[in-house]
Every structure is written in structure tokens, then in C-alpha cells.
């Protein structure tokens, strides 16, 4: 009888070893796949956008308007707006820490990185980057003004506006604009 118990013991031991390996493999793969899902989150998709840059004319011009035409809703708190005006005036700046808060949101030093080419006057920022809800949905327009004293723009000069989704470091909107 002793020999029959040994045969059963070796079969049970083999089954237990296989079960332990399967459980360990499942646990390790669950952790590995879980971390991979968190690391590879896709950026929001903006299917189409349009832009406009109005010629500077005293207090009425220098406005940049970017319209989100189609795609995912963008949270302003996850965005930076980079303006490259190196061809026009040799400067570039970014709007950060959005949405700008307060009764009259203006791009003060709290919201600007790089060259401060943004107008800090009344009503110089509007749309989802200057409003409380901070959600930029399809059909909405973001407007900000470039200061003529910091970056004079003449007809025919070009700037490029990039909207960057910071959690993924992806450019979701890239809009080259020509001064009209």
C-alpha cells in the first residue's frame, strides 16, 4: 500500500505545482497589463479645427481665434497653448495653468511661459480657457490677444498656434495663421 500512496502523492504534487505556476502567471500578467494601460493613454482627438488672426489695429486687433470644429472635448486644465511668432517678431510664448480664473481672466505671469507676447488688458482671453467650466467642446472658440507692444504683426506675417495635451505631451491642434 505504501507504493500506491507515493504514486498519488507525486500526481497531486504535479497538479499543485501547475496550479501555482498558473496563479503566479495570471497575477503577474494582470499587474503588467494594468500598468501598461495606465502608461499608454491616448490623447484626445480633434478631428478638425480652424483659426483666424486679425491684424493689430490699436485695441481692436491682434486677436487669435481657434475653433474646435470636431472631435473629443478637451479639458482646459490639461492644455497649454504655444504660440510661435519667431518669423513675425522673433518671439514665442505659452499659455499655461488654464483656465485663467477671475472675473476678468487675463494672461498674467501666472499663465505665461516663455516670451510674454500676450495682451494683459481687459477681455483679452475668452472661451473655454477663460471660463469656469474649462471644457473646450466642438463648436467652441478660444480667443486671446497678442500685444502689439511685444510682438508687432503686419499683414502677411505668419505665426503657428499649437494646443498641447499635457498628460500625453501630444499636439492636438496645430494651426498656422497668416495675418490678414
Quick synopsis:
The protein is an alpha+beta fold and 180 residues long. 23% of the residues lie in helices and 33% in strands. It has helices at residues 2-39, 86-89; strands at 46-53, 63-71, 74-75, 79-85, 91-95, 112-114, 125-126, 135-136, 141-145, 158-165, 170-178.
Strand portion: 25-35%
Rg, Cα atoms, Å: 27 Å
Tell me the count of domains.
Answer: 2
Tally the helices: 2
- Helicity, as a percent range: 10-25%
Average predicted local confidence, pLDDT = 84
If strands are numbered along the chain, what order do they take across the biggest sheet? 6-5-4-10-11
* Secondary-structure element string: HEEEEHEEEEEEE
Q: The biggest beta sheet, please?
A: 5 strands, antiparallel
CATH architecture of the largest domain: Sandwich
Number of extended strands? 11
Element layout with pairings:
Blueprint: H1 2-39, E1 46-53, E2 63-71, E3 74-75, E4 79-85, H2 86-89, E5 91-95, E6 112-114, E7 125-126, E8 135-136, E9 141-145, E10 158-165, E11 170-178
Antiparallel strand pairs: 1-2, 2-9, 3-8, 4-5, 4-10, 5-6, 7-9, 10-11
Quick tags:
180 residues, alpha+beta, Immunoglobulin-like, 2 domains, 5-stranded antiparallel beta sheet, 4-stranded antiparallel beta sheet, 2 helices, 23% helix
Amino acid at each position: 500500500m505504501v507504493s500506491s500512496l507515493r504514486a498519488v502523492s507525486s500526481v497531486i504534487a504535479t497538479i499543485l505545482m501547475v496550479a501555482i505556476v498558473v496563479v503566479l502567471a495570471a497575477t503577474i500578467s494582470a499587474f503588467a497589463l494594468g500598468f501598461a494601460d495606465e502608461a499608454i493613454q491616448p490623447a484626445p482627438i480633434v478631428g478638425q479645427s480652424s483659426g483666424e488672426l486679425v491684424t493689430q489695429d490699436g485695441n481692436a486687433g491682434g486677436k487669435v481665434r481657434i475653433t474646435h470644429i470636431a472631435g473629443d472635448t478637451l479639458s482646459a486644465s490639461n492644455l497649454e497653448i504655444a504660440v510661435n511668432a519667431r518669423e513675425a517678431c522673433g518671439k514665442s510664448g505659452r499659455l499655461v495653468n488654464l483656465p485663467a480664473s477671475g472675473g476678468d481672466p487675463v494672461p498674467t505671469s501666472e499663465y505665461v511661459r516663455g516670451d510674454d507676447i500676450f495682451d494683459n488688458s481687459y477681455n483679452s482671453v475668452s472661451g473655454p480657457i477663460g471660463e469656469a467650466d474649462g471644457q473646450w467642446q466642438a463648436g467652441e472658440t478660444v480667443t486671446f490677444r497678442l500685444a502689439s507692444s511685444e510682438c508687432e504683426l503686419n499683414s502677411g506675417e505668419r505665426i503657428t498656434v499649437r494646443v498641447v495635451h499635457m498628460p500625453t505631451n501630444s499636439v492636438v491642434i496645430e494651426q498656422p495663421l497668416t495675418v490678414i
